[in-house]
Please model this.
Amino acid sequence: MKKLSILASFFGAILFTSCNNNDDNMDMTLNVDYPAAYIVNGEDATVSVVKLSTNEVTGTIELMGSGSDMIMWPHHISSHQNHLAIGVPGMDLSAGHSGLNTSGMDGKLLVIDAMNGSIVKNINLPLMNHNSIYSPNGNEIWVPQMDMDGKVLVYNASTNALMNTITVGMMPAELTFSFDGTKAYVANGDDDNVTIIDTATKAVLTTISVGDNPVGAWTGSNNKMYVDNEDGQSISVIDVATNSIDETISLGFMPGIASYNGSKNELWVSDPMNGKVHYWTWDAGMNMWMHGSSFNTGAGAHAIAFTNDGNTAYVTNQTANTVSVVNTTNHTVTKTINVGRKPNGIVIKM
Model:
């Protein structure tokens, strides 16, 4: 699992700043009443807000805090209505998950107001978490716990009460939901499998073997889940209806994230070590994914988010400290946006 960086100590108050850097005239609040992308900058412990109509950074949410409220290395992000949930593992996961030892390390569940950047809740967790994600109906927040005895914690999104604890596999990383919201998927990195959970009953339905060191099962609107196997350098395609593997795609590189573009019927996979994104197209005759090509984005290419129409993609480049804006029709980068240090998770709110 991923090699760790040396963690620095962070101190400071929670601030909400606009992109205006003039200290004499700084607007200390945000008012995000427009479609935006929210990018989590792990090393800075900030969130960059990008206005989609201009592809400009319009604000930066400072998360760092101090004391028991300190936020270190926030990672992936999800959204529900006007709230954003962020997983805070407390360590740098940008170089891959191999060799990760999280024994005794705690994490945080952070929720912020997407409109003004204020922190709504900051919950200490027993163990570190790769992500925190709203349930499909928004009533719950699900949090994997990275440990040899892997678990998933389910919190009431309104009261913060712990509702369920679900046992999964060893060293679970990302937790995701199927497109129809009926199933949850937990990638168990040290077991090389994925646990599938009934969202309504919280019962484990089955556990299926995938490739070596799975990190996440990424949601497809085509009733599939795409598992990125880091050490196996492959993508396992899960059929949501049958809970079985449809296909294993050999990559030849360590994947960052897999992301399905339903409007183009393409599967994109980031290639962080080479600063690229590869894409596959569906061949109905062969009944399999065929590699199309690749294009450069930036060093440490990681998360991929598509706009609702599928015509534009945003790619976080962790080492380059940028976000690439990509035209999905011709697979070209149309703009590069400077953000904070080690950007990783991204979510788009329309």
Observations:
- The chain has a mean pLDDT of 91.
- The chain has no helices and 29 strands.
- Residues 30 and 116 are 4 Å apart (CA to CA).
- The two ends are 34 Å apart (CA to CA).
